[in-house]
Specification:
single chain, alpha/beta, Rossmann fold, seven-stranded mixed β-sheet
Length: about 190
């Protein structure tokens, strides 16, 4: 490749999620907490973009910071992670019961392994502690009001979002996430 560095887009904790141009991974092949897994999978600063939909809530806050620091090391300067987690500020009892720590049991839903409920401030803090510049795309504020900023799904599709979750309609929002883009700034 004439000495050119090849970059890729990566989905972590992909489950059955597959998108053209993105490499899907599972925890057994890339544990975001294990630096050695990252080293086996790719080179430092070799990733354009990372997508993680409802992954960080399965880690403690401290583990989330470790995972964010690993992500930071393997993103190229100017690269980003689009990340979504359940929103602890969303004012909907059904939703909160579904996503709470130790939520619905394993036969019903993977929420039983949730270790943390994030609000937007706490979630931003995870990525800022790792060195990222963070932009909020979707979230509920401290009063439970939903905020939305347009984002391009081609840069990382989040299904559990205001626009794309089929449970939402013009009259009622039933499924939201805190969605951020966290950028590794280019150092000049």
């Amino acid at each position: 490749m004439n000495g050119e560095k090849r970059y890729m887009k990566l989905i972590i904790g992909a489950g059955r999620t597959r998108y053209d141009g993105w490499v899907a991974t599972q925890e057994d092949e890339l544990n975001v907490l294990a630096y050695r897994d990252w080293k086996k999978f790719c080179d430092e600063e070799s990733l354009d973009a990372i997508l993680a939909e409802h992954v960080w809530e399965h880690m403690t806050f401290e583990e989330g910071v470790i995972a964010a620091k690993n992500v930071y090391e393997f993103l190229k300067p100017g690269g980003y992670i689009r990340c979504a987690v359940p929103d602890g500020n969303f004012n909907n009892e059904w939703y909160q019961n579904m996503v709470k720590i130790g939520g619905l049991g394993p036969e019903d839903h993977p929420a039983y392994t949730h270790k943390i409920m994030y609000d937007y401030k706490k979630f931003i803090k995870v990525f800022k502690e790792a060195g990222f510049k963070v932009e909020l795309l979707e979230y509920c504020d401290d009063d439970g009001r939903f905020h939305y900023r347009y984002w391009n799904a081609e840069d990382g599709y989040i299904g559990r979002s205001y626009r794309y979750d089929s449970r939402n309609n013009d009259k009622e929002i039933k499924m939201v996430s805190i969605i951020i883009d966290a950028y590794k700034e280019i150092k000049i």
